[in-house]
User: Fold these one by one.
Assistant:
Number 1:
Amino acid sequence: MADRSLDEQIDAALRKGAEMPPGQLASAVRYEPERRVITVELRSGASFSFPVDKVQGLIGANDSELAEVEIEGDGYGLHWEKLDVDYTVGGLAAGIFGTARYMAQQAGRTRSDAKAAAARANGAKGGRPRKTTRG
């Protein structure tokens, strides 16, 4: 099957955006440098914010780069041209701040009393099994 042209891909994305419920489409977006968050207002009247320092591709970006966020696809997505970063509004609202691999790495960094207790219990059993080589 031949790859779709860029125009066909853009048209498909615009159609998908038009089919989205208004509650999942952005009507406005702004960067708040004092809090380092992006706030998205939805067509439904609701809004949500997310910390830029948790989002893959936005971590470490400066205030001027972050402030240049644009709404794309009739409210379906957000785009940072200078950073070459794109996210769907629905994904950000659901807390999806990067690729599956990135999200798994972030989840592994979570610290909690339960995680610490499990690590201690595993250590008391001798820790992780040693890797063996086949030969």
Note: The mean pLDDT is 85.
Number 2:
Amino acid sequence: MSQTVSEPRCELGMVGLGVMGRNLLLNMADHGFAVAGYDRDQAKVAALRAEGKDLDLIGTEDLQALVDALKAPRAVMLLVPAGAPVDAVIDDLATRLQPGDLIIDGGNSHYVDTDRRAAGLAAKGLHFLGLGISGGEEGARRGPSLMPGGPREAYQRVRPLLEAVAAQVAGEPCVTYVGPGSAGHFVKMVHNGIEYALMELIAESYDLMKRGLGMDNAGIHRAFLGWNQGGLGGYLMEITARIFARRDPETGGDLIDAVLGVARQKGTGMWTTLAAMELQVPAPTIDLAVAQRDLSALDRQREQASRVLARPLGTSNGDPEAFLLQLNQAFQVAMAVAFAQGMAVLTAASERFGYQLDLAAVARIWRGGCIIRTSLLEEIRSAYGQQPGLPNLLLDPALSARILAQEEGLRAVVCEGARVGVPIPGLMTALSYLDGYRSAWLPANLIQAQRDCFGAHTYERVDRPGSFHSEWEKE
């Protein structure tokens, strides 16, 4: 049944019937839950009704009708653009709901906003969950990864529904209670930061294949297909291989060659970088991925610089097959480094904000449905399962052994990229982070001395505790 009805029988109402909201609501209805959806756009409501004509759901353009259709205590999910639209919907809903009702924000909201909204709604007796959702439109329809944070009792109310619609891996739903407050949205934010890094590393690998080795799109397709079927299996690798096999119906050529080389951002990658800096956790591979998107957007300047700063690319003189093997190893190491940086941010945030994150559980729910799902996550889950207090993923004995066995591939690729002039800052940054993290001594003693010399900021000594200052201008 899809027509609007008056009796309050629905388990959940969805505000926002764009592709994500509509698909997730259809997913819920597929699993036997009576649900209702609202949007001001008649076309979106009509699309819900058409696609769900054989399901137990309601589509309406009247927000009050949505609220009236819900069983008490009510649960309403929002899937609207982050920022002011979320606040506007919450303010409207708050006047229509009763104490004990629940609002769930399923968008990519900034965790700071989530904490603010939760506090404001709590004062009115309303519960609030910040629900991170990953998987895109297909994941929403067939099974996403879900990261709910907020009051545990509020999560328990919708737990059966969320577990039913989440992706399943080895019989386990890819959803778990993440933690209190804004924990769910913080974890989703870092997920997206890792996603930025992985996409940048894949793009750099593509550039090395294309401009470094001179491979055509068919060869690049075969390379990524092989990587996905090997030790680098995962969603991003899978769709990358697929992209290089897609033809452009307009030109008849390869679609990838018709796509503009500009990639912008919507904020979650930048938020991860800002949070990492505020927590004083180095995450340079994620930072670099954000910066590279900004650099790509300077397409007119880059076109001018290609003439003013012209330097022809070198050519790779080695064995292409050997280099592809090294590149495979380089990507595996850099991917592990990117995950390590993201998990380190989560570790620090858990302590600072009291999230009490179970990183083994986070890795578990990322194994299916989400954009960054990869076979590596099973190793990450195992690492944190055996050592819950692990400060950095790179300290795990099993993972570190594999990194040591493959790092020369990364080192060789970085050297070759620098020699021929193909920009691979993500791979370079991953190697520098690895070398810096394992270095028992860093030249920061000079920075301390410089700061004391020009600003009397003092310095610490290796031979005794305390702060010291020297009169550097005096002999």
Note: The chain has three domains: 12-181, 188-437, 443-475.
Number 3:
Amino acid sequence: MFAVGLMHYVVLSAMLAGLGILVMVTKRNAIGILIGVELVLNAGNINWAAFSRYQVGDAGGVIAALFGVVLAAAEAAVAIAVFVNMYNNLATVDVDRASELSG
């Protein structure tokens, strides 16, 4: 029988964080960058929950992960509002053209 240990969660979290950073660095589309940010936030949430799971009697990590999910939802809502405004003004969500919005 295969047992999933703490190291498996840490490796998964590191892979998600690395993938998220790679997406944020390589994408020029604002939606793609937002997806990368969400991957990094979810990697942190996995770490919180995993370390809480292996600390007997401690639910603080799970509570922190829930706050992280709420933070990610709020961040996504604000970012999408900014992207819609950017699309209305420039007809694109290319972040290289965002400097044209400065007034």
Note: Helices lie at 6-26, 30-53, 60-90.
Number 4:
Amino acid sequence: MPSTTILVLGGGVGGMIAANEIRRQLPAAHRVMLVEKNAQHAFAPSFLWLMTGDREPDEIRRPLAGLLRRGVELVHAEVVGIDPVLRKVRTSATEIAYDHLVVALGADLAPDAIPGLAAASHTFFTFDGATRLRDALSGFSRGRIAVVVSALPYKCPGAPHEGAMLIADYFRRRGLSPKVHVHLFTPEPQPMPVAGPQLGEAVRSMLEAKRIEFRPLHRLSSVDPVSRELVFENGQRFNYDLLVAVPPHRAPKAVVAGGLTNQTGWIPVDPQTMRTGQNGVYAIGDVTAIPIPGRWKPDVPLMLPKAGVFAHAQAEVVAQRIVAEIAGRPCRATFCGDGYCMLEAGEDLAGFAFGNFFAEPAPRVQLRQIGKAWHLGKVLFEKWWLAPVGIRRSLIGRILMAGGRIYGIPVAL
């Protein structure tokens, strides 16, 4: 069997799982390479805990090299060009030829896309942003906090609602609830509309219980950092004292320049296999565009949410398919559209939403009753995810993995 090079772009959830699983299943004669510009891997689901001071920065990040299997070649560089015809990727460090390519570059944040937003806002969608927001919250004692979903689509459909609830709970713990008022704005008609009206109403009730003012159908147009005023496309205006934003998202420039995106601005893939229209190229995770049954509006189809749980499952499917291609055997592995979300509500409580997003005629998603067990499940998964590969495979790792599966979390060694 001739040697091949499998190149994975991006060291987030999808990229790490894909590289590790391909390396685990392939003989050592084949090269598995991963390109990632950041030497440290930060666990994004814990950014909310970093924001509220429940985690220290070094508790939720690890050197990426320690999370990869032996034999995965790590290239610390930025992807600057993709040529799917010549099967080459240009990075800030070198040019790499590949036989199989997995694009897992995620979504870039683009706060500059909305006038005034970058200068005026904080965010918990990045490690550094969550750290700065923690400091801003600690110095805040009175006024109106606006949590704003600035554009669609965005990563993790539950994150804005979790963020608003955890911020409200943070000030409750400080005894400042009567003085601090949290408002949540979104262009969507309800919380997490892709999951259906029943889940949306359940999340709305959770927000109301925290005395959070939920304002749907508010698409942000601009921000005035001087007067601290939000301007929305529906003509509404709102004065804030602290602005926490989910910035607009867009595909990385190298993906767009490489001709991999379509009119959505993201990479179209086969929903079951994650193949792109380019030979030998797969794409997984936030960088993809996958239509699902149902309509958000009469003329707007639903799209699979951008979330780590999907990137994880897609990576396992792609790994099996690439290994089968190299071995010359058929592969039946497919991405089934199942997903879940642990929705943090503060006070060590969380809900557990799960369902099938490929279900006809629309996604079927349920929300389990809020309780401490689901919060514990998220903590278990955090500890497992940040453990070095060797520990993941040890007895401790297997105990954490078993605990995760009790809560319905699929994890791979």
Note: The CA atoms of residues 294 and 362 lie 5 Å apart.
